């Protein structure tokens, strides 16, 4: 089956590569000629483990190609996926559908023969019906259907999520479009991965509801962590006790500096706007957004308090600035709140991140970049763990403490314990939702 994937961002590129690995003939399209040129040379513009090898294998097999020519890619395709960005619109937080509608209009002029136009971008409820109207207006003779196929890919584990999904959600209007979508996902259906077929609106809503619920779990445990710090409880044990309940589960119950990335912040804001438009305020989601912002500011306070409220002239080594490990994505990362706040308070900040430097150079002006954790910590007044990269999970804490000007550790991902830090020689240690310690000034 021939598939055209419009957009070679994170979702479009991963989806296109994986569809080609299913055996489909996939053309990934983007207006950015420089990006297409890099892709044709085998250069992957994002960091996603395993994607470069999978892409190379399918290009070599002749199933995957890249182009700036949308019309040629759409011509003869059984399905055309729209996977362009839907960033938060300035001023109101609503999803900006400019790129989606532009793609739909351009697709319309290129349609020839029956085609299913599939929206993979995260879009507000009702968008697919608008896409249908745009295409019908631009090309009244077009024979097509629209479908909603939201993605549920975790950055850093996207290939596994695509190949072994919890579920595939497909919203369609008729059996013909459903059959095309079933053919596309047949390799997963044959391996008994569930395909949930719904109407268009339900498919659109599932994506927002799922992300808002996961964001709520993260925010809830962060709020509980703040209470644990006041009461003497241990949030890691509280999370474990909660997670053992099958109705709750243990995922997304890890206290830390709050959620970030390309999905949760954008989608929670968009969901609140959808609720406002339909007269059904999303009060829980609105509170989640507020509490998440407060959690980030609380991390700044933790570091400041650890250093007696005075960081002017002090050197702080920050480990990890991407919003999560195994990605180079800096969008809405907690580091974008914490690091500028420390610099603004007069600190000298050093940064170590396995993949964050490419985006971080522009987003975090004024920091020094290091490749080695121990060099970054040398003569530093504090070390702050912001992202739980595997490289930071087995540090030689004793070595680190001995070479610091003042051994203080802010473990904002709860990787280590207070006992680990104390044995290593740290004079002060703070974490999230657990007991801290420190010498008396």
Describe the structure.
The protein is of the alpha/beta class and 441 residues long. It has two domains: 2-198, Rossmann fold (3-Layer(aba) Sandwich), CATH 3.40.50; 199-441, 3-Layer(aba) Sandwich (Rossmann fold). It contains 18 helices and 15 strands. It has a seven-stranded mixed β-sheet with strand order 11-10-9-12-13-14-15, with helices on both faces. Strands 3-2-1-4-5-6 form a six-stranded parallel β-sheet, with helices on both faces. It is elongated and about 75 Å long. The termini are far apart. The mean pLDDT is 95.
Structure summarized in a few sentences:
With 441 residues, the protein is an alpha/beta fold.
| Uncertain regions spanning at least 5 consecutive residues | none
Largest sheet: 7 strands, mixed
Mean pLDDT: 95
Number of helices: 18
Based on helices, strands and strand pairing, what is the structural class?
alpha/beta
Corresponding CATH superfamily of the largest domain: NAD(P)-binding Rossmann-like Domain
Helix percent band: 40-55%
How many domains would you count in the coordinates?
A: 2
What would CATH call the class of the largest domain?
Alpha Beta
Taking Cα atoms only, what radius of gyration do you get, to the nearest Å? 24 Å
How much of the polypeptide forms β-strand, as a percent range? 5-15%
Name the shape in a single word. elongated
How many β-strand runs? 15
Trace the largest sheet across and list its strands.
11-10-9-12-13-14-15
